[in-house]
Amino acid sequence: MAWAQKSKSQLEQEKKQTLQKIKEAEKILNQTATQKKASLGQLSAINNQIQEQEKLVNTIKGEIGLLEGQIGEINSIVEAMEADLKRLREEYAAMIYAAQKSSSTLDKLNFIFSAPSVNHLLMRLKYLEQYAEARRNQVKQIERVRNALSQQRTVIEEKRVEKNTLLAQQLSESDKLLGMKQQQSALVKNLSQRETEIRKEITSRKKSVDNLEKVIAELVRKEIEKSIAEQKAREEAERKKAAASNAKKEAAKPTKSNEMALTPEAALVSSSFQNNKGKLPWPVASGFVSGKFGTHPHPVLKHVTVRNDGIDIQTNQNETVRAVFDGVVTRAGFLPGFNNFVIVKHGEYFTVYAKLKDVQVKTGQVLKAKDPIGVVFSDKDGLSEVQFQVWKNTEKVNPQTWLIAR
C-alpha cells in the first residue's frame, strides 16, 4: 500500500490538508445548498467532499497501519529484551551459587595463599577482584535491561491508546462518508427527475462552449498573423540595413502559419511559462476542480457526454480571480453562458478566465502572477465557478497539468 511508505509526519500533514479541503468543500456546498432546488453545483461539491473524505479515511488507515508496524517492531524488541533478561538472571544466579560455595573467608584465604608463587598469588587476587566486579556489572546490566524493558512496554501502551483513538476516528469519518454517499444518491435521484431541463442546459452549454472557442481561436489567429507580419517587417528592415552596409545577412528561420513569431522578449516569457508547468498558482485561492478537461460522461444523465475545453473550478461566492502568470491582457469581453471573460497572453501561450461577475483589467494591461482579474460569477443556484483554459498557439491543452497540485 502507498501509505505504508509514508512517515507519521507525512500522514499527519496529508490528513491536515485533506481536512482543510473537506472544510472548503463543505463551505462551498453550503453556499449552493441555500437554494431548495437540487443542482449540479451541489452534486459537484458533494462529489468532491466524498473524494476528500475517502482520502481522509485512507490516511487514517495508513496511520493505523504505521502504528501496527511500530507496535510489532517494539514487541519484537521486548521479546528479545525479555530473553536477554532471563539469560542475565540465569547467569547471575549461577554466579551467586558459585560464590556461596566458596563464600567463607577461610576458603578465600586458602585459595590465595595456596598459590605456588607470588605471581600466582597476585593473579588469584586479581581474579577475585574481577569476579566481584563481574557480579556488580551483572546486577547493573540486569537493572538497565529491566528499565529499558519497562520503557518499551510503556511505549507499546501509548501506541495502543493512539491506535484505539485512530480506530474511533476512522469509524466516525466512515460514518460521515456513508452519510455523504446517501446525500449524493438522493441528489442524483432528484436531478434525474429533471432530465428535460438538464438536457436544455447541456445544449445551451455546448453552444456557449463553441462560441467561446471561436472567440479564442479567432483572437489567437489574429495574434499569430500580427506577430508574423511584425517579424517580416523586422527581417525586411534588417535586410535593407545589411544590404546598405554590404554585410551578409543570415536567412531567418521560417515561421509556421499556426505559431507565434516570437521576439526575444516574448520567447523568454513563453519559455518561462513552459518551465513552470505544474507549478502555476490556481486562478482562485480556494476551490476544487468540478469539471475536468476533455469529453466526459454527464454526472447524472446516462449515455450523455459533455465537452470541456478547460477546467471548471468551483469556489466561494465573490472569490477573486487571479492571473496565473505574468502576461498581457489581449481581450476582455462578454459571452452568454460564460458571462465576462478575459484572455491573457504569455508569449505563445494564452490563459482564459471566464464566468466572471466583473472584470478589473483592460486590454493591453500588463499583469503579474496573482494580480486580480475580476470576481467570480454566482448563478441562480448559488454556484460560483470559474472556467479556466490554457492554449499553446492554436492548441488547447489540459490546464490542470499546469497548476500546482492541491
Structure description:
By secondary structure, the chain is α+β, with helices and mostly antiparallel strands. The protein contains 6 helices and 12 strands. The protein has helices at 8-32, 40-101, 105-113, 118-192, 195-244, 264-275, and strands spanning 288-291, 294-297, 305-308, 311-314, 320-322, 327-335, 339-346, 349-359, 366-367, 372-376, 385-392, 395-397. The strands form 2 sheets. Strands 1, 4, 5, 6, 7, 8, 9, 10, 11 and 12 form a 10-stranded antiparallel beta sheet that branches. Strands 2-3 form a two-stranded antiparallel ribbon. α2 (40-101) packs antiparallel against α4 (118-192). It is elongated and about 120 Å long. It starts with 7 loop residues before the first helix and ends in a 9-residue tail after the last strand. The model has no long low-confidence stretch (mean pLDDT 83).
From the structure above, extract its key features.
two-stranded antiparallel sheet; alpha+beta; 12 strands; ten-stranded antiparallel β-sheet; 6 helices; 406 residues
TL;DR?
By secondary structure, this protein is an alpha+beta fold. The protein is 57% helix and 16% strand.
Intertermini distance: 21 Å
Main beta sheet strand tally, sense and closure: 10 strands, antiparallel
Mean pLDDT: 83
Poorly predicted residue ranges: none
Rg on CA atoms, Å? 37 Å
Beta-strand percentage? 15-25%
> Multimeric state of these chains?
single chain
What share of residues is helical? Answer: 55-70%
Q: What structural class do helix, strand and pairing data support?
A: alpha+beta
Helix count? 6
What is the chain-wise order of helices and strands? Answer: HHHHHHEEEEEEEEEEEE
- Overall 3D shape: elongated
SS elements, strand count: 12
